[in-house]
Amino acid sequence: MDTDHTIDFVEYQLPLGRQQLPGAGTVDLWWINLDSIGGSIMAGGTVPVHPGETVRARRFASRFLLKMFLGAYLHIPGKDVFLIRNRFGKPGLDPEHHAEPLFFNISHSHQWMLFAVNAAKIVGVDIENTRRSTDPIRLAARYFSATEVEALQNVDGDLRTIAFLRAWTHKEAVLKARGFGLAGNMDQVVVEIDPSLPARVIADRDGGPRWQLLDLTLEDNMIGALAYAGNIKTINARRLVVQNRGS
After folding, report:
1. Distance separating alpha carbons of residues 219 and 131, to the nearest angstrom
2. What φ, ψ does residue 103 adopt, rounded to 5°?
3. What's 217's domain CATH number?
4. Cα 141–142–143 angle (5° rounding)?
């Protein structure tokens, strides 16, 4: 599969229903507007969420949707999904309650949420808004390896911010897949900086699997990355939407 992947998300209306677990080489991606879904969940779809409640609504919707997705793949109600977190905060299924192999990851940015799931290999995702104001060289000097900083300095100024954000999503997707925190670990995963070259992990100083990285071009000036500990052959991409009440 190409490393630069423009995702064509197919609309999928609530209710979610039972989902088939994607096996080796297949990743299910779900793209969600938390403001739309959150308003429907919190207000029954009848009135909009008050602006002052936006952050709370997004958090609530995210937690609700995570259990709903996992329940759909496990074929149980979301309320019966038990989660634990590792010391870095990564959520996972509680093995005392769930014996099924299921690997998943989520990423948030403002109203957007990306959820990835696979039943065979660990998976990680990250999304970033390209409109965010940033100083790429200063941030790279703080978080990236010296080799990456030098490579970023060689990128044309007009492309430097995109190159930085692209590399950031690659690193974070890998670290999240591994279940590591970002602090003190960003320079341990060395990635391709040149935006004209395919996404790849050049070095993983902590060892681990051979990663496949995919760039995700998303809507609303969002970009993202998918990291998979194996070979990706198929991506099933869906955009969760609330059914039009007038239909």
Report:
1. 12
2. -115, 135
3. 3.90.470.20
4. 100
Closest CA to 198 of 185, 213, 209: 213
Beta carbons within 8 Å of 46's beta carbon, 6+ residues apart: none
Listed in order, strand segments (DSSP E) in 119-246 are: 123-129, 189-191, 201-204, 212-217, 222-228, 234-241
Question: Tens digits of per-residue pLDDT, 92-112?
Answer: 999 999 998 899 999 999 999
pLDDT confidence of residue 181: 82
Q: What does the pLDDT read at residue 59?
A: 87
In a domain, 223, yes or no: yes
Determine phi and psi for 188, rounding to 5 degrees.
-80, -20
Which structural domain, as residue segments, surrounds residue 173? 4-241
Q: CA 95 to CA 100: how far, in whole Å?
A: 8
pLDDT at 3: 54
Tell me the two tokens of residue 216.
Answer: 């995700």
The structure tokens 């959150």 sit at 38
- Cα–Cα distance, 45 to 72 (Å, whole number): 21
Residue 87 belongs to a domain: yes
Reference 225, options 215, 233, 212, 210; nearest CA is 215
Omega into 15 within 30° of 0, i.e. cis? yes
Q: State how many domains the chain has.
A: 1
Cβ atoms of 217 and 29 within 8 Å: the answer is no
Position 247 in a domain:
no
Question: Residue 246 falls within a domain, yes or no?
Answer: no
Cα 7 to chain center, whole Å?
Answer: 13
Q: Which residue has the tokens 């065979």?
A: 120
Q: Which residue numbers in the chain have pLDDT < 50? A: 45-47, 247
| SS3 category, 202 | strand
